[in-house]
TrEMBL record:
Keywords: Disulfide bond, Signal. Pfam families: PRKCSH. Residues 73-175 form the MRH domain. The keyword Nucleotide-binding does not apply. Residues 1-28 form the signal peptide. Gene3D superfamilies: Mannose-6-phosphate receptor binding domain. InterPro entries: DMAP1-bd, Gtb1-like, Man6P_isomerase_rcpt-bd_dom_sf, MRH_dom, OS9-like_dom. This is N-acetylglucosamine-1-phosphate transferase subunit gamma. It comes from Salmo trutta. The keyword Ribonucleoprotein does not apply. The lineage of its organism: Eukaryota, Metazoa, Chordata, Craniata, Vertebrata. GO terms for cellular component: Golgi apparatus. Residues 180-282 form the DMAP1-binding domain.
Length: 303
């Protein structure tokens, strides 16, 4: 009797152990349980919130329609099955497993980065750079839709670790409430007008049109710049001197020009400080029959 119950207990213990080990994988699809082998302990609910969720980046600046800025600093939660989602517009979105498991999942699904603009209309807020998911980071698109009160309404995971939520709010019910054009500065509106005109006159391709619009939206801070990796000084240099050879040519031309000008100055007995340069650069340009170019000013051409 004693032996049997111990054995049953023992078996039960093994089964429990197996379930604990297997459950994250066997239910992964259905329950969206997302485990990080290296975050065991970090998800412990007894640890302070701040030390559990470590954002990788700081949120982008508040941008877009002025009447939506009042949402900054507020948070909206939504419970679906075993998960609670917390959306803080212009800040972050997090997911918290509603469970008493010692390693219940709690993680960042994205940090506010940029708008999605479709058809010249603000469509959704992109929260990116969330917790790691394989070799990518979790990201979430929050689509704004008209509704009676501000609340999260739906959640789905269209592709692995890319989440989609819909945020209902009366703030976007007016048909013009999400138009991009009125939110732009006069200067950017003027640029957009010019782009539209160029498209109307078939001066630019559809792709060119889209690229120019993207530039305007980036300048306005609605989209994250895709040009950050380029270093402006390198671009300028590479434009001026396409290659070392070209650079050398330019230097030679400039040296010849300096020599020519110095020779002219000497010829006209005009004092100039170029002794050091003179020593280095042999004068190879003949000065005869050369005239001062352009405006002579006070210098009288004696030839
Ligand atoms: C998410 O945003 C809220 C509201 O601004 C903030 O209080 C909270 O600390 C943020 N959480 C993370 C993990 O960044
Ligand atoms: C864009 O907006 C125009 C006018 O409001 C509409 O006719 C068109 O169907 C929209 N296109 C898309 C892709 O939503």
């Amino acid at each position: 009797m004693y032996y049997t119950s111990t054995r049953i207990l023992h078996l039960l213990w093994i089964c429990l152990l197996c379930l604990t080990l297997l459950s994250p994988y066997s239910f992964a699809g259905k329950m969206k349980i997302v485990e990080e082998p290296n975050t065991f302990g970090l998800n412990n609910p007894f640890l302070a919130q701040g030390s559990r969720l470590q954002p990788k980046v700081t949120p982008g600046p508040v941008s877009g329609p002025a009447h939506l800025r009042r949402l900054a600093g507020k948070c909206f939660s939504y419970i679906e099955s075993t998960y609670k989602y917390e959306f803080c517009p212009f800040h972050n979105i997090t997911q918290h497993e509603q469970s008493f498991r010692w390693n219940a999942y709690s993680g960042i699904l994205g940090i506010w980065q940029e708008w999605e603009i479709v058809n010249n209309t603000f469509l959704a807020m992109w929260m990116r750079e969330g917790d790691a998911c394989g070799n990518k980071n979790r990201q979430t698109k929050v689509i704004l839709t008209c509704g009676g009160s501000s609340k999260l309404a739906q959640v789905s995971e269209p592709t692995t670790c890319v989440y989609s939520l819909s945020f209902e709010t009366p703030l976007v019910c007016h048909p013009h409430s999400l138009l991009v054009y009125p939110t732009l500065s006069d200067k950017l509106q003027m640029e957009w007008d010019e782009v539209e005109q160029a498209r109307y006159e078939n001066l630019i391709t559809e792709q060119g049109y889209n690229n120019l619009l993207r530039d305007i939206f980036e300048d306005a801070g609605f989209l994250k710049s895709q040009k950050v990796k380029e270093k402006p000084d390198i671009t300028t240099t590479s434009k001026t001197h396409d290659s070392l050879q070209k650079c050398n040519q330019d230097v030679r031309k400039q040296r010849e020009e300096i020599e020519r000008l110095q020779a002219l100055l000497t010829q006209h007995n005009i004092p100039h400080e170029s002794k050091a340069a003179k020593e280095k650069i042999p004068l190879s340009v003949t000065v005869q029959n050369q005239h001062l170019r352009g405006d002579n000013g006070l210098i009288v051409d004696v030839l």
